[in-house]
């Protein structure tokens, strides 16, 4: 009890103690779900957020009432689908996170979620294009490789598409790569930053372990340890789906990753130099029909896509992973674009 109270007051102090501009309005669509709830809590604790709008087709008012009692300066308001709640939740939103959609069950691939989630993401994107066309959008709903192109097509159709404002949140892959490699190498996770490029599903997830000293060692040794590490990073989501045994997929680590992604934009908007791997419209492999790709991206002071950096030097084993990623990613992107042509 005492420890919890001390923790609460130090969180509140952190939330009050910033000298930065804490005036950013954030909306979470799908806020009552397994990801949405802890993500909303973490955003409420972020001192750079001034207002949090939570939208869901169920329970959003309750989640917002609960989260709003955390004694941090931001205000949190919930909206359901009645009385134009979706549009109200998006008014003046500057960052929109979309975790709305079905999660996997054992035996499913992320692509198996396409039929359920494509139309959910499309409809939420239509509302965002109408009410908050200038917001930065972070898509969490799977299959990310396809849902991000869907949002792009919706914004194009509405005549408001700015590729610099649209992101797929692939941060969980980076978080996992850091956790798993530091576990092997004995390094500090916070200082073990593995670039993960490509997309967000199985073979489209390409960890570039050779680009940091502790990863380079593992890559050069090769063998079973490398194969197991790469597989664990690419299929970390399956590990959680299996362990949850039908009750869904990663929620808490995803909320952590989503809050970290949002914090990267917020810090960049407050003058910090920030570079993250994130899935954006990208020229890097456009000549191969891959128009969206995750690579290191400099976040501009507007919280938008700045310089898109190339993948850098690859070990031959990483080049193989990249070669395998591109055709799959191309198909996933085409699926999203074709869905919007129907
Ligand atoms: P969940 O079922 O617990 O929550 C989803 C929420 O979305 C529910 O509260 C539901 O009511 C809401 N929802 C459904 N349709 C909606 C609509 N039209 N408008 C608003 N809200 C709507 O699922 P979850 O575990 O939170 O996962 C959500 C999504 O995130 C899934 O598609 C999952 O695959 C994906 N995911 C992505 C990553 C990633 O790395 N990008 C990681 C984990 C999960
Ligand atoms: C993940 O990587 O955990 C998410 O994409 C959820 C999933 O279906 O694996």
Automatic annotation (TrEMBL):
One of its GO terms (molecular function) is L-malate dehydrogenase (NAD+) activity. Residues 170-339 form the Lactate/malate dehydrogenase C-terminal domain. It comes from the Eukaryota. The keyword NAD applies. It is an enzyme of class 1 (oxidoreductase). Pfam families: Ldh_1_C, Ldh_1_N. The keyword NAD applies. NAD(+) binds at residues 30-36, 56, 117, 140-142, 254. The active site is at 200 (proton acceptor). InterPro entries: L-lactate/malate_DH, Lactate/malate_DH_C, Lactate/malate_DH_N, Lactate_DH/Glyco_Ohase_4_C, Malate_DH_AS, Malate_DH_type1, NAD(P)-bd_dom_sf. Substrate binds at residues 104, 110, 142, 176. Homodimer. This is Malate dehydrogenase. It comes from Rhodotorula graminis (strain WP1).
């Amino acid at each position: 009890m005492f420890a919890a109270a001390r923790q609460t007051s130090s969180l509140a102090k952190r939330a009050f103690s910033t000298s930065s501009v804490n005036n950013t309005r954030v909306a979470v669509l799908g806020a009552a779900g397994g990801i949405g709830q802890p993500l909303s809590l973490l955003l409420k604790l972020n001192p750079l957020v001034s207002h949090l709008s939570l939208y869901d087709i169920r329970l959003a008012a309750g989640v917002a009432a609960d989260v709003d009692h955390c004694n941090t300066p931001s205000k949190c308001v919930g909206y359901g689908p009645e009385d134009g709640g979706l549009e109200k939740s998006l008014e003046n939103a500057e960052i929109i996170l979309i975790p709305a959609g079905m999660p996997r069950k054992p035996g499913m691939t992320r692509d198996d979620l396409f039929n359920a989630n494509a139309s959910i993401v499309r409809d939420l994107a239509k509302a965002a294009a109408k009410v908050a066309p200038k917001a930065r959008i972070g898509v969490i709903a799977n299959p990310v490789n396809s849902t991000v192109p869907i949002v792009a097509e919706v914004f194009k159709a509405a005549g408001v598409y700015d590729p610099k404002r649209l992101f797929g949140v692939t941060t969980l892959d980076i978080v996992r790569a850091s956790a798993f490699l530091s576990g092997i190498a004995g390094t500090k996770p916070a200082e073990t930053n593995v670039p993960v490029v490509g997309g967000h599903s199985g073979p489209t997830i390409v960890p570039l372990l050779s680009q940091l000293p502790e990863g380079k060692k593992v890559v050069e040794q090769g063998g079973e340890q490398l194969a197991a590490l790469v597989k664990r990073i690419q299929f970390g989501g399956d590990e959680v789906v299996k362990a949850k045994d039908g009750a869904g997929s990663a929620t808490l680590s995803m909320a952590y990753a989503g809050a970290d992604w949002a914090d990267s934009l917020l810090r960049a908007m407050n003058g910090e130099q920030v570079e993250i791997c994130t899935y954006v419209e990208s020229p890097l492999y456009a000549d191969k029909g891959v128009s969206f790709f995750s690579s290191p991206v400099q976040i501009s002071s507007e919280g938008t896509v700045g310089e898109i950096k190339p993948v850098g030097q690859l070990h031959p084993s990483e080049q193989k992973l990249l070669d395998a990623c591109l055709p799959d990613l191309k198909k996933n992107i085409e699926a999203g674009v074709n869905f919007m042509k129907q």
